[in-house]
């Protein structure tokens, strides 16, 4: 197959990626495409799920000089 033949073929589409994108678009649309509203709804859904939510504190960047000298 030549390069020209490869370029003329439509790109392969992953059905799982397509499904995820469709669900994401639905969430955005239901939130009026407002990221703050989307975040609020997702946090609410998370609280109502009854699952334990794990939060981790942010990590400090490592100092590369201390690791190599030390």
Account of the 3D structure:
The protein has 4 helices and no strands. With 70 residues, the chain is mostly helical. The protein has a domain at 11-48. It is flat. The relative contact order is 0.06. The mean pLDDT is 86.
Q: Give the SSE order as H and E letters.
A: HHHH
Total E-strand runs: 0
Alpha carbon gyration radius:
22 Å
Q: Please state the overall shape, judged from the principal axes of the Cα atoms.
A: flat
Number of helices: 4
Secondary-structure map:
Blueprint: H1 3-8, H2 15-30, H3 35-48, H4 64-69
Give the gist of this structure:
The protein is an all-alpha fold and 70 residues long.
Question: Key terms for this structure?
Answer:
4 helices; flat
